[in-house]
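It is worth pausing here to work through a concrete case rather than discussing structure prediction in the abstract. The textbook approach is simple: state the sequence, then state the predicted structure, then interpret. We follow exactly that order.
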Amino acid sequence: MPVAHPLRRVAITGLGAVTPVGLTAPATWDSFTAGRSGIGPITRFDASGCTARIAGEVKGFDPTAPLASLLHPRGPDANAVTAALSHKDLRKLGRFAHLGIVAGLEAYVDSGLDSFRGSIPPERIGVNLGVGLGGLPEIVAMHETWRQGGFRKISPFFILQTAPNILAGQLAILLDCRGPNMSIASACATSGHTLGESARSIRRGDADVILAGGAEAVITPLTVGAFAQMKALSTRNDAPEKASRPYDSDRDGFVIGEGAIVFLLEEMEHARRRGARVHAELLGYGATADAHHLSSLAPEAEGSRRSMQLALADGGVPAEEVGYVSAHATSTPGGDGEEAAAIAAVFGGGRERLHVSAIKSMTGHLLGGAGALGALAAVLAIERSLIPPTINLDNLDPACAALGLDFTARTAVEKRVDVALANSFGFGGTNASLVFGRA
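Step two, the predicted structure:
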């Protein structure tokens, strides 16, 4: 396998996820490979007056239930860790932080790092967790509280509930991570960028371990209504589980979702010295801008194509070695085809060996969490030799069909994958691509 960088390599040793199809990373993966949709009617507010009334909501989530037992005791501070996640204190944080903390703790536990904390300086452990829109539900709710009750009714916790970087800060407090701590916000490419930039930090030697990923929880009247007014959302309200259908001729827009996905990234030799299980290696990262339009891809997805090429070059990976692309594909009439054309252009004659799939067909679009969710599919496809499907792909768009790509319609495919690529693109014309390899 190619080496990501002549200096330091980046292993993925922990995975955590809270998504519309599962409350853990394994549960999410099981749903992916079974082709189960997590999209249904909106329950978080009355959407009856909106043209789009469906979403990928996280269901059955109690942020206090798993946390007390998730961490193994680490000595005298163990009680403080669990106490910090009580019902009383959770009201200080927004929903996106609740989701992200649970996913972050799952990734931490999955890594097995806790047993070795005595030999790892906390200054060598960082956190980089992004969010696209932040605490919008809390902003809306507090505005209504102020409108009805005046200034005295504004919560002193309001800023903590809404500031995007509070998720990274709170997780650092819980796990005593004193290395680089930041929160990237780049729309739907957010968590692709957090993973890529965190990998670069480890390569540079800024840290040995970084918890990286993203979260989003903005299923609110304003968000759904605004996307609906942009004509960006699917209005297939009578069949929610069929609404997100990337590459299908009948797609009519994306479905909004929520969730959080966190990776524990670790310098490879550091991981090997402690005998860690390595899910995969993060080989390469590319980041570009379209500089074309605030909400539409550049013609022929020029910026997206360059981000993939840069990621391959960064990892020293020939295009023909890639066996799977976890596409950004959101189920929009324009975007899916443009990205598919860019994939075809990048991988050229290797198309017959390449599978492409769109997991947003099952979850909807997690916005700031989308890049990490796509990366999760890529990493586990490598580890499990199983490619998740694009569900609801009943009638392949003729323009996509002409590209000759295999979009993995409806059913998962068993196949050894040594290298996979994951894309995420965002409003403002921002793009991120990540290349993963078998460790």
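Step three, interpretation. Confidence is low (pLDDT under 50) at residues 1-5, 68-84. The two ends are 8 Å apart (CA to CA).
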